[in-house]
Amino acid sequence: MELPTAAAASAARLLVPGGYFVMEHAEVQAGWIAGMMQRTGAWREITTHLDLNGKERATSAVLAGPHHE
Known about the structure:
By secondary structure, the chain is α+β, with helices and mostly antiparallel strands. The protein has one domain (2-63). The protein is 35% helix and 30% strand. It has helices at residues 2-14, 30-40; strands spanning 20-24, 43-50, 56-63. Strands 1-3-2 form a three-stranded antiparallel sheet, with helices on one face.
């Protein structure tokens, strides 16, 4: 899970507060990725999205502000 972790960390560094991030992933990774983003404390509005086959295929989140608005 190094690549999803690195992608989320890079996005948190590059986005401004309120910036929107979407990561596509395998359906078996959805819970782990949402949990990882939650644990960092950098993200809010973490949402898993289904593909056309009903599989959990992407996760989105909004970068929290400096005070985790």
